[in-house]
């Protein structure tokens, strides 16, 4: 029987119990126990399996206090890789209480909303363990736990809630608790972009520090996130924090799919013929010493291929979470950074120093931070590394076609949106008045502020100029419309017959020195192919013709008024 694909399902119990296709990552448990630290922070890009990994840990380790439920949890792992591990690993199954929560709901627009969501998340974990309170000998502790569970206004200090929960569980069960925290950096992301970063930092920091630092009721903790956000942020003073980022050699194959795992999935669904396409689009990440695929995109694409073996692959990861970080960084990039992005789009690598200890407040402080953020969030991957004194230098590249698609579309659109937000009234006036020099200067300035494809095809420039002219409200813009003996590039038509029709023909120059001649060729093409025919048939008699030529970030513009052929087709 063909298994369903777990589209967006991150609960291990649901995936196994309901028979979804599962890529077995349970040996993550063995490696974790082999290298265990007291507080373990795993940093991976969004949608690389962190939430499912923590869900797997929860069902493996948690003693629910109910023998039947524990047995059901152990049954989930039957036949999986961890079931073949030595007895000492299997002895840890359902052996201790687990505190498990995600902070993703705390990504809110205001500080009061974010703080409430954090408290509610903690309260729900108190509620989940309410069965243990009857075993507490301390009545005051039971009452305090009930107040936390009710999100009561008179609850004890919330910033110590997780530590208190571990203590209560230890008193109720005699066992130390395991703490699992998912998406630890998400509250900070929302706070940074909504202006209350400095407000939320103290609460999140004290909540985590009280639970992770010198907590005698804690067995160990596993925390996940995308960025380390350390130093003055949420992990200040934690000398027991073991960080496993995309730079480290361990755990690489446990987040993301390996080639063998993708090959097995393709065989299971009978889609081996699409192996090369899947590899080009979603492979290419070098993480933790392993080459892996983006798991979110593989599952989504496999679902499309299961329905249609000829389905086109596309970008799934781009829309899986907020791109606010990357957009802010890219829009603030200087000319040098924009030029390097064009090199990346062209398939080249760039070498940059990488800082692992970043905070959101660092985002715009130093130019090189752009590349560290793009690397740790999965928009770039490692192509090589070397040491330069105390600095780690990484050669970085775009991982695959999916991420290249993001650069070529989303990031370029962000630049163009920023450009359209500028006051283009002087540019529009120059176009209407035939001021070629002013049009040329405006186009050259605009090109300098955006990024473009490495081959600078005419279609790119056409889209660029059409976007620039989209807001010229005095004229209706039409592109690539049949006229006369061909297709005109852009025609701007006014509503009144006595006003001027503007015709623009675009050329991409192979070399800078042919910019001027190409402008002349463009004007001649307008005349010879009679791009004015339709407008004249409607009753227009006044025309401005522009020949526009581009070479990389340079534009040349020439304009002729009413220089169109007579009835015999001659000037």
Describe the structure.
- The chain has about 575 residues and is an alpha/beta fold.
- It folds into four domains: about 10-80 and about 90-245, Rossmann fold (3-Layer(aba) Sandwich); about 255-315, no CATH class; about 325-405, no CATH class; about 420-560, Trna Endonuclease, Chain: A, domain 1.
- The protein has helices at about 10-15, 25-35, 50-60, 65-75, 85-90, 110-130, 140-150, 160-175, 185-195, 195-210, 260-270, 275-280, 295-305, 325-330, 335-345, 370-375, 400-420, 425-435, 435-450, 460-470, 515-530, 535-540, and strands spanning about 40-45, 100, 175-180, 220-225, 240-245, 285, 290, 350-355, 380-390, 390-395, 475-485, 485-495, 500-510, 540-550, 555-560.
- The strands form four sheets. The chain has a five-stranded parallel β-sheet, sandwiched between helices.
* Overall structural domain count: 4
Low-confidence parts lasting 5 or more residues at pLDDT below 50? 566-571
What class would the helix/strand composition place it in?
alpha/beta
What's the main sheet like?
5 strands, parallel
CATH level-1 class of the largest domain: Alpha Beta
CATH architecture assignment name of the largest domain: 3-Layer(aba) Sandwich
Strand order of the largest sheet: 2-3-4-1-5
Indicate the mean pLDDT.
88
* Percent of residues in β-strands: 15-25%
- Tell me the radius of gyration: 30 Å
Q: What is this entry, summarized?
A:
The protein has 22 helices and 15 strands. By secondary structure, the protein is an alpha/beta fold.
Structural features:
571 residues, alpha/beta, Rossmann fold, 5-stranded parallel beta sheet, 5-stranded mixed beta sheet, 42% helix, 17% strand, elongated, disordered C terminus
């Amino acid at each position: 029987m063909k298994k369903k694909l777990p589209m967006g399902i991150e609960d291990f119990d649901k995936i196994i119990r309901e028979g979804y296709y599962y890529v077995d990552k349970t040996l993550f448990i063995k490696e974790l126990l082999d290298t265990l630290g007291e507080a373990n922070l795993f940093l991976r890009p969004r949608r690389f399996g962190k939430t499912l990994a923590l869900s797997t840990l929860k069902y493996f380790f948690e003693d629910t206090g109910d023998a039947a439920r524990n047995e059901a949890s152990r049954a989930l792992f039957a036949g999986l890789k961890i079931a073949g591990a030595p007895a000492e690993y299997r002895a840890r199954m359902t052996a201790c209480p687990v505190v498990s929560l995600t902070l993703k709901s705390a990504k809110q627009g205001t500080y009061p909303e974010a703080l409430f969501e954090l408290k509610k998340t903690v309260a729900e974990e108190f509620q989940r363990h309410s069965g243990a309170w009857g075993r507490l000998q301390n009545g005051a502790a039971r009452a305090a736990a009930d107040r936390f569970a009710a999100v009561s206004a008179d609850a004890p200090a919330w910033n110590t809630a997780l530590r208190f929960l571990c203590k209560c569980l230890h008193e109720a069960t005699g066992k130390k608790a395991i703490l699992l925290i998912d998406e630890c950096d998400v509250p900070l992301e929302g706070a940074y972009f909504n202006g209350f970063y400095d407000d939320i930092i103290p609460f999140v920091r004290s909540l985590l520090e009280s639970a992770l630092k010198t907590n005698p009721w804690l067995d160990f903790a596993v925390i996940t996130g995308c960025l380390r956000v350390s130093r003055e942020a949420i992990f200040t003073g934690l000398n027991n924090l073991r960080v496993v980022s995309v730079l480290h050699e361990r755990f690489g194959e446990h987040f993301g799919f390996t080639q063998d795992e993708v090959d097995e999935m393709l065989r299971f669904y009978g889609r081996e013929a699409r192996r090369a396409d899947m590899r080009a689009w979603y492979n290419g990440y070098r993480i933790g010493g392993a080459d892996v695929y983006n798991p979110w995109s593989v599952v989504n694409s496999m679902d499309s291929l299961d329905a249609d073996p000829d389905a086109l692959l596309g970008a799934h990861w781009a829309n899986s979470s907020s791109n606010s970080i990357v957009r802010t960084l890219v829009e603030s990039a200087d000319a040098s950074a924009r030029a390097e992005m064009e090199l990346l789009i062209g398939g080249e690598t760039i070498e940059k120093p990488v800082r692992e200890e970043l905070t959101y407040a660092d985002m715009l402080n130093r130019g090189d931070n752009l590349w560290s953020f793009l690397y740790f969030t999965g928009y770039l991957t490692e192509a090589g590394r070397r040491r330069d004194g105390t600095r780690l230098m990484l050669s970085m590249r775009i991982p695959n076609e999916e991420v290249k698609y993001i650069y070529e579309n989303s990031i370029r659109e962000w630049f163009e949106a920023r450009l359209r937000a500028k006051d283009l009234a002087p540019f529009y006036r120059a176009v209407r008045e035939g001021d070629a020099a002013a049009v040329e200067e405006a186009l050259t300035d605009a090109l300098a502020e955006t990024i473009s494809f490495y081959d600078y095809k005419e279609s790119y420039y056409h889209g660029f100029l059409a976007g620039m002219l989209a807001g010229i409200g005095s004229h209706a813009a039409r592109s690539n419309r049949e006229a006369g003996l061909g297709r005109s590039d852009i025609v701007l038509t006014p509503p009144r017959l006595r006003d001027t029709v503007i015709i623009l023909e675009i050329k991409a120059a192979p070399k800078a020195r042919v910019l001027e001649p190409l402008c002349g060729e463009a004007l001649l093409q307008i005349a010879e192919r009679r791009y004015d025919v339709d407008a004249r048939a409607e009753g227009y008699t006044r025309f401005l013709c522009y020949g526009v030529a581009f070479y990389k970030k340079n534009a040349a513009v020439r304009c002729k008024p009413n220089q169109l052929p007579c009835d015999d087709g001659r000037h």
